[in-house]
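Predict the 3D structure for this chain.
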Amino acid sequence: MTQTDGYRALRDRIAPILAEAAEGVIERDHTRALPREAVAALASAGLGRARVPAADGGYGLTIPEFADVLVEIATVDANLPQVFRGHIAWVEEVLLRPASPWRDEWIGRLVAGEIIGNAWSESGSGALGTQQTVLGDTLTGKKYYSTGSIYADWIDVVAQRGDEQVGVLVPTAQDGVTVSDDWDGFGQRGTGTGTATFDAATVDAGSVAPVADRFGTQTALYQLVLLTVLAGIAAAAERDTAAALRSRSRVYSHGTADRASADPQLLQVVGEVSATAFAARAVVRDAAAAVAETLFGGSAVGDVDAIALAEIRTAQGQIALTDSVPRAATRLFDALGASGTSAATALDRHWRNARTVASHNPWVYKARIVGDWSVNGNVSDPLWAIGVATP
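Done. Predicted structure below.
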């Protein structure tokens, strides 16, 4: 990939941040500690304005460049790219809006390092296709899976306003907003994917718009971010397995070499993990190129066919990596044996994180959708919902 000035500049800025974040990643996983310092440092370094044009104070990265950076970050800590997932989508929403004082104001906020979280999903018994969170003069309701919101200055919330669903930006620095770190998943423990509660919260009225008017590639972009996380996990699994095997002095009497690092059977296992990491990176780059075709700076902005292809490519990537990355993250124990299961190394986090990420947006439905596209040329509506269906 050709490296632009903005790409090199951002990577240089975040390199020491990632080095520091790497030192505490195992301890954070053990204690479920949030990577607050790393998130704040990445925001200060400009990760949140990576896609903002250089002329407006950003780095001007392309989508493939940005995806590459996210994979690098995920290789250090798989939580970090997912924290910024809602922010990444909001940046594209701002960039795709026509020139206006509102757009200028939001670009200024992004350049200043403000972070946007996400609160679209709800738990409980709400009816399919509706929201229990309601927007009137203020916002009232409760959201779960509020990824990144515990770190954020703003939260992108989906709410019911009359008969339509709207997206609205809510400032977090107010009494009416409470974000809890009550996510209890066994993986991705540092994403802050917990509950956001809104009690007559004030909103940014200029940011209220029907969800249906959001840019068409939003769901594909959301999925692309998760693909970068999976690719980073695969790369980390390869790194950690190779390092552990390289440093091992003890061997089995029924092995095939006097050093573990020379045992061809163990090298085969590491080679399989490495191949998965390579393939995952290739999947990300191809999916990123498809998404780029539909976004700011792409060659087919707003083109329905390009949007449909981006949905298919990210779904294909999800199907492939949902199977291969968790498998690689457990295959590594075939090379390392029982000592590899030591809690001190936390190598199990790679599988736990991969399996958790892969459980977003169930791949079985995506496989059916891709099959329908392959056989019949059909593409489903990318704006899907979850809730209790009415018989």
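The domain at 116-213 is CATH 2.40.110.10 (Butyryl-CoA Dehydrogenase, subunit A; domain 2).
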